[in-house]
Design goal:
Structural class: alpha/beta
Number of strands: 10
Radius of gyration: 17 Å
Number of domains: 1
Shape: globular
CATH architecture: Alpha-Beta Complex
Oligomer: single chain
CATH topology: 2-enoyl-CoA Hydratase, Chain A, domain 1
Length: 269
């Protein structure tokens, strides 16, 4: 099983459960996550969705590199990265859900893991966690809307720093720049997120749903063609020399770790 689904009070708690793979997201996990989000959104008893990860080390390290390696050089469609882009479109179910989606970040988040955070309405991160947009290290740009949403969340100057350097930042820094909502002690993110859902449940579900829809529609109106341009940049980089070199280095290490953010060892600072 790669996804655990629990009902806790007013919350549906979805736990990414691939600790041996740093909770990396492959096609199966992405489908399971999207299905669970849609089911929870349709359940009138659910007032919020909490996404967290198994273990203390990693929330999610992003897209599974073993899966991505199989796509390169296969069909023409896969060679252009279309399946990866499609995963991002599906994961946008976080934004389209009728109830708020809260990320309870109990460990590090890298690459696509940070893009998943940007799809959530609220982000609660534990004090020991580190975050990094590691795409440049893989010769890629974000595939799941992370470039556009990162600019929305932290502004163009901080977005440029995080993307150009691919450096890790700690939880306090993430809070300072507005990437996350709240920092809590180690081990407290899940309970805090569930408590947030309980507070949200004090308000009428249809009203909260309308507010969430309004926020999403405002963002989409302001984006214009931004996401289409972002997708084009990803397609341009996918399978290029920088990407091929990074994937070859990953495969030379035996394909361990299977994530765009945290292959084999914790990335250097």
């Amino acid at each position: 099983m790669t996804l655990r689904v629990e009902s806790v009070g007013d919350a549906a708690v979805l736990t990414l459960d691939r600790p041996a793979k740093h909770n990396a997201i492959d096609g199966g996990l992405a489908r399971a996550l999207v299905d669970a989000i849609r089911a929870a959104s349709a359940d009138p008893a659910v007032r919020g969705i909490v996404i967290t990860g198994a273990g203390e080390r990693t929330f999610t390290s992003g897209g599974d590199l073993n899966m991505l390696a199989e796509l390169i050089g296969s069909t023409n469609e896969a060679a252009e990265g279309s399946p990866v882009l499609a995963m991002g479109e599906e994961l946008a179910a976080c934004e389209r859900a009728e109830v708020p989606v809260i990320a309870a970040v109990q460990g590090d988040a890298y690459g696509g893991g940070c893009e998943l955070l940007l799809l959530c309405d609220l982000v609660i991160v534990e004090s020991h966690a580190q975050l990094a947009f590691r795409h440049a290290k893989m010769g890629l740009s974000p595939a799941w809307g992370g470039l556009t949403r990162l600019v929305e969340r932290v502004g163009p100057i901080e977005a440029a720093r995080l993307l150009f350097t691919a450096e890790k930042i700690d939880a306090a820094e993430a809070l300072r720049i507005g990437l996350v909502n709240e920092v809590v002690p180690k081990g407290a993110a899940r309970a805090r997120a569930i408590a947030r859902v309980a507070r949200i449940a004090d308000n009428p579900r249809p009203t909260v749903a309308a507010l969430k829809r309004g926020l999403r529609e405002v963002r989409e109106a302001r984006r214009g063609a931004a996401t289409e341009r972002e997708r084009a940049i990803f397609v341009e980089r996918w399978g290029g020399p920088d990407h091929q070199q990074a994937m070859s280095a990953f495969l030379a290490k035996g394909g361990a770790g299977s994530s765009s953010g945290n292959p084999v060892k914790r990335p250097p600072g």
